[in-house]
Amino acid sequence: MNLKFYIDELKKVLNEERFKHSLGVMEAAEKLAIKYNADIEKAKVAGLLHDCAKNLSDEELISLANKYNIQLDDVLLRSPSLLHGPVGGYLIGDCFGIHDEEIKRAVMLHTTGDKDMTVLDKIIFLADYIEPNRNFEGVENLRKASSSDLDGAVIMALDQTINYVIKKHQLLYIKTVIARNDMIIKTNSILQNIDF
Predict the structure, then answer these.
(1) For residue range 100-116, what is the model confidence (pLDDT) as tens digits?
(2) Sequence-separated (6 or more) residues with CB below 8 Å from residue 141
């Protein structure tokens, strides 16, 4: 894998801010991969390229989703920006020559998550949240959690995503809910302070 080539090609398809973010995700992914004994090279490549489809228009994303036979539902058609992950998973093959299934999956799931997330999937999902350029309420708590509990930090990030979408009165994507429930079941996390 040729990181310099990927960086040079990525500069051509992303705006400056998104490119800087991608470098930050690569950095965060590398640190998480070291911490959680994941493949460092795969984490760096997936982190770098995770947003390779981010600057495409809604029309381009839908067109490419159709080309790649990505199943479209009402939520994706109403929120096409969610397609940048799945579409990016295919573009890394077509545009960057990367056909590694683990990297592809991590890129595809980095925004929504899904059931049965691998360690690499979790690392890229979380790195996208905690990269050094991010500055939002709660990011420091996520960074701290990520240094000691990968699964717990991913659950926190999923909770923040779901809460953000609800506050914006937007549609929840089912894979995000499935990812959260799956993580909680598998880690035996107890939901606190819920009155039934």
Answers:
(1) 999 999 999 999 999 99
(2) 156
